[in-house]
Amino acid sequence: MSTPRLTAAQLDLAYGKARVVHDLSLTVMPGAFTAIIGPNGCGKSTLLRALARLHRPQGGEVTLDGRSLQSLPTKEVARELGLLPQSPTAPAGITVRDLVARGRTPHLGPFTPWSAADADAVARALHATGLKGLADRPVDALSGGQRQRAWIALALAQETEILLLDEPTTFLDIGHQYEVLDLLHGLADEGRTVVAVLHDLAQAARYADQVVLMSAGLVLASGSPGQVLTAQRVSAAFGLPVTVVPDPVTGTPLIVPSRAPAARTVHAVDVRPDVDHTEATLASTDSHERTP
Amino acid sequence: MSARALSLGAHIRSPRRPTMVVAAAAALLMIIAVVSLSTGQMPLPLSQVLRAAVGVPSEGADFIVGQLRAPRVYTAALVGALLAMSGALLQSVARNPLASPDLLGITSGAAAAAVTGIAVLGTSSSLALAPFAVAGALLTAGLIMALGWRGGIQPLRMVIAGIGVGFVATSITTFLLTRLPERAAGQAYLWTVGTTNVRVWNHVVIGVVALAVISLSAAWLQRRMRVIEMGDDLAGALGVRVPVVRFAAVGIAAISAGIATALAGPIGFVALVAPAIARRLVGSGAIALGASAVVGALLTVVSDLIAREMLAPMQLPIGLVTAAIGAPYLLILLTRLRGSL
């Protein structure tokens, strides 16, 4: 494994006086897929923005290759590190190709002409996201999943080794969610460092190499999905009793909330937070068939 | 998110090649300019008009075209282009089709400063007044940005602040005009609605220089502004220093509107309408400086022709004509935005 490039040390992040993240340290695994998970408002997005130099820390620092991110020129950072925010706005009428082309911005000066290298980068990004056939379509006319891939293609055209994505699967149906996850996993396989804020814990467990579980501005645990996603930690982070069973497809942790209407509960589970249910058998998933 | 509801050109469906649009609009501009130069009480052969229009001696047309019609037509075109670029920049910064130097009170501020210049210097030469107008425009822009600021530029706050500041500026202009002696009354039109009547070659020279400088500096920002239109975070992640670019854009927009005002007074609605037409023609909600400039020039040249000929020999101020064209657009825009205001 190569040496880490992006790290955060004793990071304090705040909006005005409201502190969001406190004394957070994190080393992003290089060439791997890292998922940041945690309850709403725990500071996931803020952390991601700080990792991308968009949020100036009140204390501590984010370093890229050992140099403080704040000390580096914006443009230089943008050649190493890309960020796809939660809800970017596509200009009306813009085509997929033109949208993706804007990812080349950090490589272009105000009057630099468009080069063959730029066109190649855009073509590669369109290819990687399976959007080649849609390149000349207006973004407005795409489906939700295609649109999200177009935004990812923009970030790919930026050709950064590190790619940060804020909830890239939100607002997508389950099919499109997995489409995006496959794409991101593929990028990590090619050696890129991918960091994504995800909401679905099972997806994080299936796809991520490193899971960072946050709660109330702190990292509760960071490591492989199996190490991090224990019933005790997840219950504590989300304030919801859960049980953890092996994912029937991948064997990775699958978080099942223990709460349900009493009348529908067919399988009593021990919800004491100190008991780890990772050992539960798969048979329990089948017994949840409902009677009409 | 209101930015989405207000996103520029939300109705646009089919993108076109911007260069083709600009070329076609420029060709139309040339044709209308020639028509305008040939139109008037004194009929002249086209060959003479064309020669006089580019400064080649041509007997009969030298004075009428060379000294009377050409400077005003060219000034109208330049002022239109300057105003349109100002509007395009501001609309992109505010991500709001209402942002234009006239609605934001910037042209009124420039006019008030120019009239102050007349009072102080006792001259009404555009060259002497240009610094006043530019200073007034920048001051107004700074004021509305400060008033419309709440943890970032708030477009609607800015527009409301601009309307207020614009009224104050207009009252200052009116007040000063009543205090000025003699010719001031005759100039009241110029500094309250804008006019292209009686322009001279000096106006054209100032306009050409200003347009060259402003086009270059605006084009220098355009690539980054197109990224900022997609959201501040994405722009930041793409290496754009968002606040710097934004302030530069507002500054250039104010200077552009200031010079336009020094040349022809606070002509309304061109800066509001031209970028909207340009977006529709290009088929994209992204900032289109070239197309906006050409459309702006087209609008003012046509308006100037109407102002000159509709009630000839009486001449209307061009600002009345642009208002007649622009006010209905503003009403349509307000109806469309009603839900999001």
Low-pLDDT runs of 5+ residues of chain B are 1-6
- Assembly state of the chains shown: heterodimer
Question: SSE order of chain B, as H and E?
Answer: HHHHHHHHHHHHHH
Number of helices of chain A: 10
For the biggest sheet of chain B, the summary is:
none
The average pLDDT score of chain B comes to: 86
For the termini of chain B, the CA-CA separation is 12 Å
- N-to-C span of chain A: 52 Å
- Radius of gyration of chain A, in Å, reads 21 Å
Arrangement of strands in the largest sheet of chain A:
6-7-8-3-9-10
**What can be said about the biggest beta sheet of chain A?**
6 strands, mixed
Helix content of chain B: over 70%
Question: Which chain pair shows the most residues in contact?
Answer: A-B, 36 and 37 residues
Poorly predicted ranges of chain A: 273-292
Description:
The complex is a heterodimer of chains A (292) and B (341). Chain A has 292 residues and is an alpha/beta fold. Helix content of chain A is 30%, strand content 24%. Chain A has ten helices and twelve strands. Chain A is globular. Chain B starts with a helix and ends with a helix. Mean pLDDT of chain B is 86; it is low at 1-6. Classes of the chains: A alpha/beta (292), B mainly alpha (341). Chains A and B meet through helix 2 and strand 6 of A and helix 9 and helix 10 of B.
SSE arrangement:
The complex is a heterodimer of chains A (292) and B (341).
Chain A: E1 6-15, E2 18-27, E3 33-37, H1 44-51, E4 59-64, E5 67-68, H2 74-80, E6 81-84, H3 96-101, H4 116-128, H5 144-157, E7 162-166, H6 174-189, E8 193-197, H7 201-207, E9 210-215, E10 218-223, H8 225-228, H9 231-238, E11 242-246, E12 253-257, H10 283-286
Parallel strand pairs in A: 3-8, 3-9, 6-7, 7-8
Antiparallel strand pairs in A: 1-2, 1-4, 4-5, 9-10, 11-12
Chain B: H1 2-5, H2 18-38, H3 46-53, H4 61-94, H5 106-121, H6 126-147, H7 155-179, H8 184-192, H9 201-228, H10 232-237, H11 242-264, H12 270-282, H13 289-309, H14 318-337
